[in-house]
Write a structure and sequence with these properties.
The chain contains 21 helices and 13 strands. With 582 residues, the chain is of the alpha/beta class. The protein folds into 4 domains: 83 residues, Arginyl tRNA synthetase N-terminal domain (Gyrase A, domain 2, 2-Layer Sandwich); 165 residues, Rossmann fold (3-Layer(aba) Sandwich), CATH 3.40.50; 94 residues, no CATH class; 176 residues, Isoleucyl-tRNA Synthetase, Domain 1 (Orthogonal Bundle). A 4-stranded antiparallel β-sheet has the order 1-2-4-3. Helix 17 packs across helix 20 and helix 18 packs parallel to helix 21. The chain is globular and about 90 Å long.
Length: 582
Amino acid sequence: MEQILTIITNKMRKAFESAGYDASYGQVTVSNRPDLCEYQCNGALAAAKQYKCAPIQIANAVVSQLDAADYDMVEAVMPGFINLKLSGAFLQQYLEGMRTAPDFDVKKIGQGQTIVVDYGGANVAKPLHIGHLRPAIIGEALKRLHKFLGYNTIGDVHLGDWGLQMGLIIAELQERQPELPYFDPAFTGEYPAVAPFTVDELEEIYPTASAKKKDPEFSHKAHQATLELQQGHRGYRAIWQHIMNVSVADLKRNYDNLDVYFEKWLGESDADPYIPAMVDDLKARGIAVLSEGAWVVPVAEESDKKEIPPMILVKSDGSSIYATTDLATIVQRMQDWNPDKMLYVTDKRQNLHFEQVFRAARKAGIIAAETEMEHVGHGTMNGADGKPFKTRDGGVLRLETLIADMTDFVRAKVVENKIVSDDEVEETTRKIAMAALKYGDLSNQPTKDYNFDMERFAAFEGNTGPYILYTIVRIKSILAKYGDWENLPIQLPANASAKDLMLSITKLSPTLEAAVRASAPNLICAYIYELAGCVNKFYHETRILGEEDKEKQAGYIALIALAKNILETCISILGFSAPEKM
């Protein structure tokens, strides 16, 4: 189904043409004066210059060519605006098409295209902390949005599993347990199947080792271990595999708690086999050049308004860095999936890094000219005071602690208000807490910083996740009392609030397309907040279950049922769901 704005624009263009004017002047927009009209066309003002006549003359001629049945109001007003209000019959027909079609007849603009969404960015051997919240939930929402719009979507966690942290752990483990067979160059047997550490021990080993980086001797050992690991040291590879097994299981548990799921659990190590051939090729073709002992790819362009340094490909000591593995990952993805687009969701402070990598990929011909590369750089989450979010002792808060704190806060409200029975408390609490946490984040523009305010995010009123859930649950309650509601057709709007609700419903498709174009889930949040407001206004101004006219009542039910289904679809895209009661 075409977007409603497209339909009425096409009608307006035909009217311009029928009146003897160029059809291009018939662009219709949503009115910026909703007190006067719903849609407007200002084309007569521009056309007047070409046709050398008064704009109001053109506007009147165009209005006479429009089908009055489509509008409750269509008028030309000075100096030449064309104001429109859609008819109830027009909206009824449009919404009935949405109601009866799969996915509300939203156009699958991504059909036949593949997108890789690189998000999460977890590092093995380290617990997830609050800094991992935004890339996880923004990335998950963008992936789900693309999938809903027809794209073949591949979400890749892109683990940090091949850098210095591996060498630090190996060096620290060797100091603690030098007798382990992994450090014996003469050992040729099978290494133990059980890791020499638990996940809790591993999470203690890494910060201890990291704190020793200032020690020149230990730092050298760690860097050497990293290099030898990457070069295939048998014992170090076995330790690395233990780290992966223990750490990834814990990461999956934490991401599951956040309702974030990846199609691929690949990491920097998976790109490592592609590096030698890639580096040799870039050297051979002169794409990479030698600079102060290191191999770099110059990526500056004449149009740059600020300096863009070369991308380092190979350090002077022969080791690779993040840029190397990121470039090799692109090589791997193009070979495995040949995506039409790659979307990276990380902290906005990595903007320069990705600009360098993307430019290097294009310069080297690793990606096709038409392949899209986008970095969605997100802002940071701060405390309610606007300062960086820290624990009471000044440390970085673990993500599972944040989720637990939000869950405890919501549970107390659920129990205090006796919202559900005792056996439903935990499931209801989890859903409300997840909505509070995710909506509180996603309702902000991704690039902006925001302050985390648990009390505000968990409120049942205002622009919050729980308010959206409460609206859905309210509709569910009405539908349950009504009975068989699934196949009721949309009727003419019975009152002004019904028409407002219908107009809000029509914005679904343009909202989703705008959100995917801008990589901005906050647009979906703004839409469902508006839609929920229209639902609640309609509910307060209309006797639904108390309506004696059964046919009219069925129309009310059909309208709120469609709104509910759209709200549930949108929150599913955002990554949370509604309970049965609140």
